[in-house]
């Protein structure tokens, strides 16, 4: 990595309670094991959002050497200063990665948002009293353990090409209170336990942990015929983005950068009188459909960034010129989407049902978090997987 990437922003004044830092650094052998599970061809940016003394990034560097760019964040200023001295060629920022304002002010986070291959992480595990943090993810809302709080925050806001490789306490995976959250996560991520680790790994803490991998999106390997006939060498990838901002929260107390707020009522309207803040936004162009209530004709939207209400879903073609094709396909096959609307009282469209509709039409949908950069085109890679060396 070139030295221009060295982090030069001034250290933010993030107040830290040292007891909650949970600085149990990953032993070298475990860091190497985690990194051994990463795919062979990683050549982009790799981030550790709770970098500590850099154990995981050191293991990444010893495997991929100069072909990767290393990004690290830690809330502890002293930790970051020490690591910068040791590793001046890494991009290291002090930020609280649980707080959007703090992380958005950091260079490492902004680089990660722009383009990212992998996240490696060993987040803090410890409860220091209290019932855990309140988390909202898809249809889940509830209190969760700290490690799960870090994980959901990160998978909601970063979109690494090869996914997240995390050391998590087994309680984070198995606790009853996390069951519904994992069911929700599994709607949009493939989750795999890669290895179980020894309980005595972390000096001073006995805890059973595992290395897990989360990769966004689902492939459509069971429908190669559709892919092959419709693909014709052109990209059919689309992001399905479910809006997340309830109407009553659209107007935050301070809107720094106003952008249009898109609610179901906007599907038919030319003007968008309500605004919300750019930090919550998604990028158009996309086809907009209503997630709840009766089916309304979809519409295309090409007006720069907008904030999506939790009642709408955006379907965004990776290849922008496909917008019209996508729109026409949906309109032409409206009955497919009408059948997919479920519910006895209020009707609603699930992301799974929508994914299936788009797959039937030969598109390659991936469920993407709102507020995350568009997913890069993956169909070339997927085609290789499906058709071998063709
Ligand atoms: C368990 S250690 C892991 C460090 C390193 N990733 C490793 O594997 O060795 C957790 C680290 O998270 C940092 N941390 C705690 N809360 C944080 C937050 N809100 N944002 C960023 N870093 C945080 C701590 O300072 C500590 O260095």
Q: Helices and strands in order, then pairings?
A:
Elements: H1 28-36, E1 45-48, H2 55-64, E2 69-74, H3 77-86, E3 91-94, H4 100-104, H5 107-114, E4 118-121, E5 133-137, E6 140-144, H6 146-157, E7 164-169, H7 170-174, H8 179-188, E8 189-197, E9 209-216, H9 224-231, E10 237-242, H10 247-250, E11 258-262, E12 275-277, E13 282-283, E14 286-290, E15 299-301, E16 305-308, E17 312-317, H11 323-332, H12 334-340, H13 351-360, E18 364-368, H14 379-387
Parallel strand pairs: 1-2, 1-4, 2-3, 4-7, 10-18, 11-16
Antiparallel strand pairs: 5-6, 7-9, 8-9, 10-17, 11-12, 13-16, 14-15, 14-17
The structure holds S-adenosylmethionine (SAM).
Main attributes?
disordered C terminus; disordered N terminus; alpha/beta; seven-stranded mixed sheet; 14 helices; 18 strands; single chain; five-stranded mixed sheet; Adenine-n6-DNA-methyltransferase TaqI, Chain A, domain 2; 390 residues; Rossmann fold; binds S-adenosylmethionine; globular
Walkthrough of the structure:
The protein has two domains: 3-216, Rossmann fold (3-Layer(aba) Sandwich), CATH 3.40.50; 224-387, Adenine-n6-DNA-methyltransferase TaqI, Chain A, domain 2, CATH 3.90.220.20. The two termini are 35 Å apart. Helix 1 (28-36) crosses helix 2 (55-64). It is globular. The model is unreliable at 1-14, 218-232 and 381-390 (pLDDT under 50). It has 14 helices and 18 strands. A seven-stranded mixed beta sheet has the order 3-2-1-4-7-9-8, with helices on both faces. A five-stranded mixed beta sheet has the order 15-14-17-10-18, with helices on one face. The chain has a four-stranded mixed beta sheet with strand order 12-11-16-13, with no helix packed on it. By secondary structure, the chain is of the alpha/beta class. A hairpin with an 8-residue loop joins strand 14 (286-290) and strand 15 (299-301). The longest helix has 12 residues, at 146-157. It has helices at residues 28-36, 55-64, 77-86, 100-104, 107-114, 146-157, 170-174, 179-188, 224-231, 247-250, 323-332, 334-340, 351-360, 379-387; strands at residues 45-48, 69-74, 91-94, 118-121, 133-137, 140-144, 164-169, 189-197, 209-216, 237-242, 258-262, 275-277, 282-283, 286-290, 299-301, 305-308, 312-317, 364-368. The site of S-adenosylmethionine has 22 residues, from helix 2 and strand 2.
């Amino acid at each position: 990595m070139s030295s221009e990437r060295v982090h030069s922003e001034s250290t933010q004044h993030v107040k830290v309670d040292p007891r909650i830092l949970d600085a149990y650094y990953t032993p070298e052998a475990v860091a190497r094991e985690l990194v051994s599970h990463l795919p062979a061809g990683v050549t982009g940016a790799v981030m550790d959002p709770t970098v500590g003394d850099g154990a995981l990034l050191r293991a990444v560097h010893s495997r991929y050497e100069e072909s990767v760019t290393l990004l690290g964040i830690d809330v502890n200023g002293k930790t970051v200063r020490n690591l910068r001295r040791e590793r001046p060629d890494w991009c290291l920022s002090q930020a609280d990665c649980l707080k959007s304002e703090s992380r958005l002010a950091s260079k490492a986070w902004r680089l990660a948002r722009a383009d990212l291959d992998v996240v490696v992480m060993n987040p803090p595990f410890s409860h220091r009293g209290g019932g855990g943090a309140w988390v909202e993810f898809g249809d889940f809302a509830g209190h969760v353990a700290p490690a799960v709080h870090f994980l959901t925050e990160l998978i909601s806001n970063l979109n690494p090409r090869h996914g997240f490789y995390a050391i998590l306490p087994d309680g984070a995976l198995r606790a009853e209170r996390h069951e519904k959250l994992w069911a929700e996560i599994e709607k949009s991520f493939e989750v795999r336990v890669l290895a179980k680790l020894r309980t005595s790994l972390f000096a001073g803490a006995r805890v059973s942990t595992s290395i897990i991998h989360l990769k966004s999106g689902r492939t459509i390997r069971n429908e190669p015929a559709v892919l092959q006939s419709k693909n014709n060498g052109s990209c059919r990838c689309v992001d399905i983005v479910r809006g997340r901002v309830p109407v009553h929260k659209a107007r935050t107390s301070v809107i720094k950068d106003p952008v249009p707020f898109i609610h179901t009522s906007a599907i038919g309207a030319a003007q968008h009188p309500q605004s919300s803040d750019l930090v919550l936004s998604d990028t158009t162009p996309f086809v907009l459909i209503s997630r709840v209530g009766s089916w309304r004709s979809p519409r295309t939207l090409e007006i720069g960034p907008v904030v999506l209400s939790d009642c709408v879903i955006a379907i965004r073609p990776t290849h922008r010129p496909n917008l019209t094709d996508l729109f026409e396909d949906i309109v032409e096959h409206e009955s497919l989407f009408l059948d997919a609307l479920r519910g006895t009282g209020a009707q609603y469209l699930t992301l799974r049902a929508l994914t299936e509709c788009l797959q039937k039409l030969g598109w390659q949908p991936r469920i993407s978090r709102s507020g995350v950069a568009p997913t890069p085109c993956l169909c070339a890679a997927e085609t290789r997987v499906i058709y071998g060396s063709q």
